[in-house]
Amino acid sequence: MIATGLGFSTRLLERGAGAPVLLLHGNPDSAGEWGPVMEALGDRRHCLAPDLPGFGECEEPPDTFDFSLEAHARFIDAVVSGIQEKLTVVVHDIGGIVGLPWAAANLSRVAGVVVTNTVAFEDFRWFPVARLWGSRSTLGLLRARAGMVAIGLRNGALFRRIFSRQCPELAVADLDRMAREFACNGVAKRATLRLFRQLTRPGFFDGYRGMLARLVAAVPVHVVWGEPDPFIGPQWAERFGARRIERAPGGGHFVPLSSAAQLARAVAEIA
User: Fold this and answer.
1) How many domains, in total, are found in the chain?
2) If residue 248 lies in a helix (H) or strand (E), which one and from where to where?
């Protein structure tokens, strides 16, 4: 565990040596999703994979942490405070939503970016479950909380059933870990609701177009996109303006788990 200076500590998984790589996970998951990528990279890179605020084994952030982009930027600053070399930033799902703005604001510290199955677009419209999680109406808050209770019943049986259908690329061991770390983890579920109330606000993605343009102009940006993805369609892979786009057929949404070797190769190709 490492202290963030923000009123909570988080787990940081580290492996390897060489040029540093920051790996930012998605939802509903944790730093554990990067295990196969870290293994594939071996000792070629110094991998750092934190549990994002409230997820995995991270402590519950206090009310003073508002889950805004600014708050996440301070969190990432704390995670990489001891790193002097330029970082390769690798993002998945919500990791991209919070990690790409940090990279764009810290270009002098970034060697390159690898993007997989995330959204960072001003015209993106959230899918229904995200809108449910982000609801701020009285009825919406009740429905979202009831849903979070339901997915934790019977050791996450409903969660496993839903995700095994939506994401057939997930192995049983991955579903078990995600059920334990998310569906049966009250801290992670509360963090999800707090986070999505920010992400689904009107205008949240304002400025992302310019941010992506600055990134692509300044550093190598590679996209590795898993298909099919029930949450984010394949057309979004083209929208980053990346110099290189790879598809991962059969990779689904969870590319760090399903296509780790392909993703690791993309990371290793950034100097």
Assistant:
1) 1
2) strand 244-249
**27 phi and psi angles, rounded to 5 deg:** -125, 135
- Rounded CA-CA distance 100/69 in Å is 10
The answer to the question of residue 89 being in a domain is yes
Residue 241, in any domain of the structure: yes
Chain-wide mean pLDDT for the chain? Answer: 96
Q: Taking the CA of residue 242 as centre, how many other CA atoms within 13 Å lie in the half-sphere pointing to its CB? A: 22
Does 30 reside within a domain?
yes
Spatial neighbors of 107 by CB under 8 A, at least 6 apart, are 214, 215, 218, 219
75-94 pLDDT, tens per residue? Answer: 999 999 999 999 999 999 99
- For residue 50 the two structure tokens come to 């934190």
Residue 181 burial (C-beta neighbours within 10 Å; 0-12, 13-18, 19+): buried
Could you read off the pLDDT of 18-46 as tens digits, one per residue? 999 999 999 999 999 999 999 999 999 99
Cβ-contact 113, 100 below 8 angstroms: yes
The tokens describing 51, both together, are 């549990």
Helices 186-199 & 138-166 angle (0-180, nearest 10): 110
Asked whether the beta carbons of 38 and 267 are under 8 A apart, the reply is no
Count of other CB atoms within 10 angstroms of residue 209: 14
Is 101 within the bounds of a domain? Answer: yes
Give per-residue pLDDT as tens, 148-192. Answer: 999 999 999 999 999 999 999 999 999 999 999 999 999 999 999
**Rounded distance, CA 95 to CA 114, Å?**
11
Q: What is the domain range of residue 58? A: 2-124+204-268
CATH number at residue 247: 3.40.50.1820
